Records
---
Amino acid sequence: MSFIKLIVFVTFSLSFTFSNAHPVGFNFGWGAHHHHHHGGMSFGLSPQFYQFSCPQANDIVMSVLEKAIAKDIRLAASLLRLHFHDCFVQGCDASVLLDDSVTVASEKNGGPNKNSLRGFQVIDEIKAKLEQTCPHTVSCADIVALAARGSTVLSGGPNWELPLGRRDSKTASLRGSNKNIPPPNATIEGLLTFFKRQGLDDVDLVALSGAHTIGVAKCATFKQRLYNQNGNNQPDENLEKTFYFGLKTMCPKSGGDNNISPLDFGSPRMFDNTYYKLLLRGKGLLNSDEVLVTGNVRETHELVRTYAQDESLFFEQFALSMIKLGNLRPLTGFNGEVRKNCRRVN
Ligand code: HEM
Ligand SMILES: *[C@@H]1O[C@H](CO)[C@@H](O)[C@H](O)[C@H]1NC(C)=O
């Protein structure tokens, strides 16, 4: 371990211990707990945020998730993705849940989201149950984060201590949803840039892309690879041949744009490291998946190899990167609000 890495590790461990020792969420959901960062007062997130104000929060989330996922297994994937699309636009503030209104141009109409994001009714159901048990306490942004973790766990993936205490935005950014979320045909350079803009690095990119171990994608999102990868009417040469022929029957040259294919056809319902094994064999579904290996960035290729070989290392890093994702620019303290209905501001 290099000296720098050691310092980072020790600093991380210390700040983690510190925030654990000072639970917020005592009394009103925001406590007197604050760190002095950047010279101003800020409220940190903490796993114990609802320890006294709503200790049943996670149990309620899990019981709704279990029923919903038993009926429609894809919801686990959809809810995991929802957290990503929330956090990449204005931070993890439930902006993605707001419907169109006089003051809100909904992110649900953004290019990456329209006819694609799912799971909003499950969030509504969780919110309704939480409002019965702990009125006006658990934010929609925390519900989305809890649902993403719960969906990972219920799919066989890792568990982690989830910092809580996010508050909900009073605004959304349709523009941000069109600008900040990487497209499926992104290059490796593009992906790294989109992630860097959020403060996430190459390790986060490769680990979080592992979420594509569950769920599906529409034909429209990978069609370019089958018929015209480089404007020369040729397929992506990195596609393994049998995989390519199978995809062509699922996804004809004209029509069929809403047909779906699993992102990890080896084990589409199981959160495991098969996704990375497939990438190494030219069987990644999206261009953004395959370029982690073929994009001529040695680090991302190496990381794919590492996670393909060692599932527990993937699980460990996925958890760490999910915590980083969940910590993106949260509203805390007196900022934002706790929405009563996740679809509209109070
Ligand atoms: C690295 C850049 C990424 C790109 C370009 C990307 C792109 C996409 C696309 C195009 C789809 C299919 C959407 C559709 O057909 O309707 C999809 C699905 C999905 N994405 Fe990503 N994604 C990325 C990263 C992530 C991250 C970081 C997560 C979560 C941590 C994630 C989780 C998912 C999941 C679980 C699905 C399946 C959703 C379902 O079945 O409903 N993705 N992604
Ligand atoms: C990605 O797809 C969009 C929309 O289909 C297209 O305009 C753009 O040129 C594509 N980008 C690349 C790098 O192929």
Note: The longest helix spans residues 3-21.
---
Amino acid sequence: MLKFIRSSHLDLLSTCPRKFQYTVLEELTGDGESSSTRFGTAWHLIHHLIRQGVPLHDAWTKATDGYIDPPKGAKTKEKLLKGIEHYVRRYGHTLEPISPAATEQEFTIRLPGISLPIQGHVDCIGWWDANEGRGREKWIVDHKTTSWLAGDWVQKYSTSNQFKCYYKVGKLEHADLAGVLVDIFHVTMGVSTPRGQAGKSPEQIDGCHFYRLPIRFTEFAIQEWEQFVASKLRDLDNYLSHDFFPMHAPTACGAYGSNCAFLNVCSSQDPDIRSTMKATYIEQPEGQDQE
Ligand code: SF4
């Protein structure tokens, strides 16, 4: 029986209950997802170490100790170094936490009318000026790494249940919280030919793209989010009591720009073959649940 739900799993539960079953309850992960998680975890750690005063190169060395490059794709150890170098060149420095303790914090929140406590992890609460004439404000910062950004990524991130959760939690302690700042590192392969490089910045040539999306939430949006969570947890009770987690196929199978790691499992119609396939997945290493 679940004792809590993690904030990052609310969107997963909504996207596909079967994927929630495989990744959260059975702790399975595909190879591609595992390398994305490693990359994101290292990126978070680099920022955390720099915020703690560790010099940039040392932070990268420490955060990538034992890092194994994926067999394909751009999420390599080298890209992490190029990424943080370009990031600091672009913004001048990493984001400044409001206090030494306001970095990499765990939280647990119990909300009225919601059956399970919600646990989560906040990367940083930092000062940032959104250039909206309000000066420096307090933001919950979420570092995101991705190799795929859809054309409507701003709207998609703005509807994230995870970010609404961060805002709700942060607002309880910081009445002056402005919102959630999504700090995005979009990773691509980069370009190597003179023709491809023409007219591009050094960041673009190296396949490092940065965006900052500030999201301010209204009271209405947060109340709606609380109703959403209560509703999803009622669904979860139902799945658990019937021991059946429906597939949201085919709509969810290609969500986030690539095929779900469990597509082969779900497309098999034989229970024994499914079990055999699932046995080839690796268990998610503890503490690697990057949020
Ligand atoms: S393949 Fe599709 S149905 Fe199966 S777990 Fe993934 S998203 Fe859900």
Note: Strands lie at 5-6, 28-29, 96-97, 103-109, 118-129, 136-146, 177-187, 208-215, 282-283.
